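User: Please check token order:
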Amino acid sequence: MGEVRTTAPGKQPAADGGDTVRTPPLLPGGYDPADYAGPVVRAARDAGVSPVLLMAVLHNEAYKPHHPILERLWQWWKPGASFGVVNMHRATFERVRRAHGLPGRWEDLRDPEFAVRAAALHLQDLDRSLPQRYTRRYRRDELLALGYNTGERNMRAFARGVPPGPMARSYLRRLRDHWHRAARAVGAGEEAGGPAPADRSVRSGQ
């Protein structure tokens, strides 16, 4: 058996022959969602979603270790756990897989590039299901992030003006906190703007 590195993330070639994709570290610390800027930009472009939104979601989901070894152990202990750097549950992944003909399995979300692609397609599906008219309280990107966190049905309720619960509000606050960092990571800079305060009406561009 080869040596398992525990202090720093490794690298693996991207599936499309592009940038190398870093493996999250085994021990806490050292994980940076910006490591996946290349796959995020490509996946967002292919899915027609905002790369800043996709990167901000990765920042929101960076609260737990994502190393493939730990994820295998986590799956053994809790079969229904979420997987990958995008923290996607099996039921969500299966909907995305069927809708888009993804060749992989849920367990393959341990591959960061595949996970990022699945997340981008999920955001695309959420965007298609979100009405064009919605409450002035949120940007469209914010509603999509809430849909990613709480599910499509809740997202549509929030779009109608139903107030989100405390966990969803916390997710949204963290998204806003991460927005400019995410924009820098994908090279969007100041052009990306930022999530609007709750009392502003701003439509997000794609």
